[in-house]
Amino acid sequence: MPVYSKPNDEYFEKRTLRRHAGVLHLWALGVAAVISGDFFGWNFGLIAGGFSGMLTALIIMTAMYSGLCFSIAEMSPALPHTGGAYSFARTAMGPWGGYITGLAENMEYILTPATIVVGIGGYLGAIFHTPKSWEPGWWVVCYSVFVALNIFGVALSFRFSIFIALAALIVLIVFWIGAIPHVDFARYAFDTPSKGWLPALPFALWLYLGIEQLPLAAEESHDPRRDMPKGILYGLLTLVVCSFLTMILSAAIAPGAAKLGASQEPLVLSFQTIAGSEWTKLFAVVACIGLIASFHTIIYAYGRQIYSLSRAGYFPQWLSVTSARHKTPVRALVSGSALGMAAALGIYFFGQNSQVGAILLNMAVFGAVIAYILQMASFLLLRRKLPLMERPYVSPLGVAGAWIATIISAITLVVLFLNPDYNKGVYGAAIWFALGIAYFAFYARKRLVLSPEEEFAIKWN
What we know:
Amino acid/polyamine transporter I, 70% helix, globular
């Protein structure tokens, strides 16, 4: 049985967040978290599945995220805590369910910025013509700058998220308009053989991964009961439009799906067709905005997620102490960045440095789909066990939407282990996951704290 300690007032005074976010901030946080997928990562799916396979996988993933986001939009205002997925699962399935869900989501959020920073390094290398051996240096610079930005305050982080999300959308709109006159499906989109939609699933998922982080901002939202569902669903609608336009138009112009699928800076490659090589460097600079948007925003996410699990005692409690001046989880932000950077450097120096981004992407998806399965299990259990719990928003997709998201997530989890090009990283992620479970079994479950998520869950159970 878990063992709890009752903290004094000083414990929570040292772990206080500041409320700042409204609907626009939440929408921007959700869009910014995902928008990098349009600039880097999804294109590997063109090699894995071909154009038709990738398009089919994208349709399937859109259905999955619709079920997921509507379910989260119901749970988040009913359980408005910074714990997000962990707090849903803790209420529905107890401490073990809460921890395993939180651990899976933690892996997703730590590995996603590590994946994105590889893309940023590729774009910056193309801009400044630096040798490939310099890429880890770009990674260190990016982590240092954006962890600092997150430390300096929630108001600054949210304002920057709005700016960077709008800027990234403008970049994509310019690209879509420029690409339309050059579209030739027969010549460019189908220059790779179709290999089916199954191998492309993890890469199609990348075009939406991160939108589910919004409940982590619940304790920094002015009115999470009203604003959280709107922020999640408006963000999903924006991302659906972006995903299909970017994927279809990029693959259907020169240089073609085959070259695009192997590129570390796919939109820069496609933009050469639109404006010529003389404008390519400028576009690469602008395209970095999309990658930076997600990098910055998911650093915010893992900071809050580590903070919440640490405050409740699942992770070491010292990680949840916030700064006295800015009320931001400095230790959580720094430790999450160190783990992500270590994973990227480990693969770069001891694995396949030409495929670092794709390997990290599959590792992040491993954590994501486990978290999705457990969140949907939480939704189904909460509907059955706690029908009288107040729900300010009710999902119109209901139980059916949750089951669709669960089945597609489970299929994607199996697919991750079937691709020999990337599955070594996935096996590494599975070992990381197993070690995390062992930590809870032998240590943390005897040192839990009655945080807001824990007290809420105990009240309903």
